[in-house]
Design goal:
This protein is an alpha+beta fold. Helix content is 40%, strand content 18%. The chain folds into four domains: 221 residues, Metalloenzyme, LuxS/M16 peptidase-like (Cytochrome Bc1 Complex, Chain A, domain 1), CATH 3.30.830.10; 153 residues, 2-Layer Sandwich (Cytochrome Bc1 Complex, Chain A, domain 1), CATH 3.30.830; 205 residues, Metalloenzyme, LuxS/M16 peptidase-like (Cytochrome Bc1 Complex, Chain A, domain 1, 2-Layer Sandwich), CATH 3.30.830.10; 204 residues, Metalloenzyme, LuxS/M16 peptidase-like (Cytochrome Bc1 Complex, Chain A, domain 1, 2-Layer Sandwich), CATH 3.30.830.10. The chain is globular.
């Protein structure tokens, strides 16, 4: 069941297992990790790779085509990405939205992506739905052209162009256009962006698209990976059954490796609506498979990974002239880019940032790196790889790694050579590689504010349609133990032994709402300071120790909860737990780090006040709950510039002393540990932590606004308008919760929901429109969000209002039986694969605890959802959905949109700034 907490709601808008994976026995730290597989080549040239993983009744189907934007010709840019969109719009034998059959069986992780070098399509389905997934993939590989017509091309062209507009409408959104066009020479396959130009997209014809498919979408240019609860020979037979009749495709001429090293430096200066000046440094570097790629990956970690990295320590921590700095080695098939990005302090001197960056880089190239830096990077990469291969699907999952290794390097196990190079390279070799590639030829971008194949006879009768999935696997939510420490700390433990990793999360009933008793932004700043130093460890020592242990520490808050979480390797349990407890119990709140983080939080607020979505999130809560309520603060949790400037160390110490108490906390642990192993360790570590009195947050019930109102935030020159609207919904504990969730799913909670189908797929005025109910402890915000092109603001508002009114019981389009059935499938059939990872299990235990749900909530959830009927949906809709009491926030170019909004008579129009203050 997908619900929207705050982070999920924002996201929808912009291993080692006991069976299949083994680690070489010599040393648990230094061994290369294998992913066993079997590889087959069908008579028509399709490469099939199968991996067995029986820990969950699911299977990942990951199909890669060896084609990307590098294969596009001049004046035909964006074709690879445009065609990826077209592949989701139906085939000759299933001419409908591609997602529908998968929604009916509970598929997860469905998507497609395009890069410079490849296009991939992937999903995770119940094992019993493998035939359906193979039928769908084979039908669009072998039987697509008859389903692509001019109307469908025009529709997806509009969607892609809105995707481009949305990306470029964000701060720094056009920077990579400059980088891409100027790092590689004109005529190089990488001389343009993946999404292409508006002009080329406009010029794309139906004949162009059909020729693209015929050229690149044949079996000989594809790799299919099937990973999960399967048998290789059985998978081979099924794949031959569905794919065997598809013609191989033409022989292709692929571009050769062309790194195009730059010998001379160049500089570009751009101006954009950004809150901070930014500097990019870019070098052309080797392609995937080159022995020096891993050296550059390690170098990137040494430069910017963690607080003890060279550039972070100098620019952010010591000199405090930048708020953040990052780098990455972007390896591609024909060449690569090494990129460093640094954001100057708001109003700061970008030239000083660049000088310091250059000094540190020159020092590194001159003096080299040390063994500790090399080992930290190795451990970090190993830990990330292990966590990724817990999953069979998704980015960084096992099917993804096998496919990438085969497509890019010609062998599914090529990733092992990359691991080996990371394990065996030396500090001397890393620095020699760095000197070779990063000594000259940088691009600086300143951003300132302002064989013969055969075809078998097909045994598939495609006229019978998509294979029906007759049965579905079932699963139970993992059991958990509960115990209480002598100081009153409640501990929930779920033991899972598939991988040697533990996930821990110490939750406190605080969150942004606790700022009501202090200054807005205190919770965010206090949580951010916890890893900046304890009474026995400095900030850099904490960072170094985390790297050495392969652990990941995160702190943060949402509206109701504050969290201190750690991901731990079992082999390093004791020192990791000791560090975890030290961070929780003994924060030092060092003054220098406090000032640095406060400046970063102020910079974050400035960033929020330039982003349309963040602007709306800042002003909406007070309009919804009214002043004085615990939820009347910016939903971002960052506070206001005035409040953050006022916060002092005493406020942070007061937050810690008040809210970080064992009687106000629950520790949730999921992973490879027993109660016997855990309880004694926790008792020892937390023996001196005592209960205390905790304030009560004002979560009083509020009423709907008497009438709808419109709040307009002017953003001159904005290429899109953001529609952000909503009202109060009842708490999660309300008996109508499941019905309301189903209502939201029909209205705007999924890709195929009414709002998105209307504004994106039908009108193509938006890249995506959604609605969500943000889960909170008290009354919840119901939110509709849609970024739309500026010249369709009025029309889009009218369509949103039409959808809201239409779904009411007496409206033009109440929820239908078909829509409800689809919601039930989406909510229940995904359950078998929902708890594949420890972090997923932990998240759903948190949900039970946070909302005081029954212990058997997840085990009875499917039956409860299946029991919903249309009368319940209609009753909940009429009781709680109030299109006549909406708060409408619109962020856009007032000069272009105000008149149209006024014509709609949605309510009184108020003019506010990015802080919610009224303006003339």
């Amino acid at each position: 069941m997908k619900r929207y907490n705050l982070s999920q709601f924002l996201a929808f808008l912009t291993i080692i297992t006991i069976l299949p994976v083994c680690i070489q026995a010599a040393d648990p730290i230094d061994g290369v990790i294998e992913i066993p597989y079997e590889k087959f080549i069908l008579p028509n040239g399709l490469r099939l790779i199968v991996h067995e993983d029986h820990k969950a009744p699911i299977v990942a189907v990951n199909l890669w085509y060896d084609v990307g934007s590098a294969d596009e010709k001049e004046r035909k840019t964006g074709f690879a990405h445009l065609f990826e969109h077209l592949m989701f719009n139906g085939s000759e034998n299933y001419n409908d939205d591609y997602f529908k059959p998968f929604d009916r069986v509970g598929a997860t992780g469905m998507n497609g992506t395009t890069s410079e070098d490849r296009t991939n399509y992937f999903q995770v389905v119940p094992t019993t739905a493998l035939d359906m997934a193979l039928w769908m993939e084979s039908d669009r590989m072998g039987h697509l052209l008859g389903a692509i017509d001019q109307a469908r091309l025009d529709e997806q062209r509009g969607v892609v162009q809105n995707e481009k507009r949305q990306g470029e409408n964000e701060p720094y959104g056009k920077d990579f256009n400059v980088i891409t066009e100027n790092t590689f020479p004109h005529g190089h396959p990488y001389d343009h962006t993946v999404i292409g130009s508006m002009e080329d997209l406009d010029a794309a014809s139906l004949e162009d698209v059909q020729e693209w498919f015929k050229t690149y979408y044949g079996p000989t240019n594809a790799v299919l990976v099937v990973a999960g609860n399967v048998n290789p020979e059985d998978v081979k037979a099924r794949v031959e059954h569905f794919f065997g009749d598809i013609p191989a495709g033409p022989p292709l001429v692929k571009p050769a490796v062309n790194v195009s090293p730059r010998r001379e430096s160049s500089r570009f200066i751009s101006y954009d609506r950004v809150p901070q000046n930014r500097i990019y440094k870019v070098w052309n570097v080797p392609a995937i498979g080159d022995a020096e790629v891993e050296d550059l990956d390690i170098l990137s970690d040494i430069l910017t990974l963690g607080k003890s990295s060279r550039l972070y320590k100098r620019l952010v921590y010591q000199d405090q002239i930048a708020t953040d700095v990052s780098s990455f080695n972007y390896s591609l098939q024909l060449g690569g880019l090494f990129i460093i990005i640094a954001n100057a302090q708001p109003g700061g001197d970008l030239a000083a940032v660049e000088r310091a960056l250059d000094e540190e880089l020159d020092k590194l190239l001159r003096e080299g790196i040390n063994k500790q830096e090399l080992e930290r990077s190795r451990t970090s990469k190993r830990a990330g790889f292990i966590r990724g291969i817990e999953r069979v699907g998704g980015f960084g999952g096992k099917s993804d790694i096998l496919a990438a290794s085969e497509v890019y390097l010609g062998s599914p196990d090529a990733h092992e050579a990359s691991q080996a190079r990371i394990l065996t390279t030396s500090a001397k070799q890393v620095i020699n590689t760095a000197r070779k590639w990063l000594s000259a030829g940088d691009l600086s971008l300143e951003v300132h504010a302002f064989p013969e194949y055969s075809v078998s006879a097909s045994p598939v009768d495609r006229k019978t349609g998509v294979p029906e999935v007759q049965e579905f696997p079932t699963t139970r939510f993992p059991d958990r133990e509960e115990f209480t420490l002598s100081n009153g700390l409640k501990v929930l433990l779920t033991r899972r032994t598939a991988i040697p990793v533990l996930e821990l999360d110490m939750l406190f009933n605080a969150g942004f709402a606790s700022d009501q008793s202090g200054l807005p932004g205190t919770a965010s700043l206090a949580l951010g300071m916890l890893d900046e130093g304890t009474t026995t460890r400095s900030s850099l020592e904490i960072s170094d120790e985390l790297d050495r242990l392969g652990a990941v520490l995160t702190t943060g808050s949402d509206l109701d909860l504050s969290s201190i979480a750690m991901s731990v390797l079992k082999e390093n349990l004791d020192p990791s737990l000791e560090l975890f407890a030290d961070v929780i119990l003994n924060p030092a709140f060092p003054a220098d780090d406090f000032e640095r983080l406060r400046r970063q939080q102020l910079a974050a607020i400035m960033n929020e006040k330039t982003s349309p979505q963040a602007m709306a999130l800042r002003v909406f809560p007070r309009l919804l709950y009214g002043e004085g309520h615990a939820y009347d603060l910016p939903l971002t949790g960052s506070g206001t510039e005035e409040s953050v400037a006022t916060i002092d160390l005493g406020a942070l110490r007061g937050f810690h002393a008040t809210w970080v108490r064992p009687n106000n906390a629950t520790l949730i642990v999921v992973g490879d540990v027993t109660r016997v192993e855990l309880e004694s360790r926790l008792e020892k570590l937390f023996a001196g932590w005592h209960p205390g009195e905790v304030p009560v947050k004002n979560l009083a019930t509020v009423e709907h606004q008497p009438t709808s109102g419109v709040y307009l935030i002017d953003r001159p020159g904005s290429e899109q308008s953001l529609i952000f609207a909503g009202h109060i919904m009842p708490p999660r504990s309300d008996s109508a919760d499941l019905a309301l969730d189903a209502l939201n799913q029909v209205l705007g909670g999924a890709f195929s929901s009414r709002l998105n189908m209307n504004l994106r797929e039908d009108k193509h005025w938006s890249y995506g429109a959604r609605s969500g109910i943000v889960d909170t402890a008290a009354q919840r915000p119901f939110i509709v969000m849609a970024p739309v092109q500026t010249d369709k603001t009025k029309e889009s508002l009218a369509e949103v209002q039409k959808e809201l009114q239409g779904i009411l019981k007496g409206g033009a389009r109440p929820a239908t039986a078909e829509e409800l059935a689809k919601v039930k499938d989406q909510k229940t059939l995904t359950l078998p694969g929902r708890w594949e990872t420890n972090s997923a299990v932990l998240g759903d235990i948190i949900e039970i605890e946070r909302f005081s749900l029954p212990e058997d909530y997840w085990n009875t959830f499917a039956d409860a959802v299946r029991g919903l009927d249309l009368e319940e949906i209609a009753a909940a809709t009429d009781r709680f959905l109030r299109p006549d009491r909406m708060i409408w926030v619109v962020v856009g170019d007032r000069a272009k949109i105000e008149a149209g909004i006024r014509e709609l008579n949605l309510g009184e129009i108020h003019y506010i700034d990015a802080d919610g203050n009224p303006i003339d």
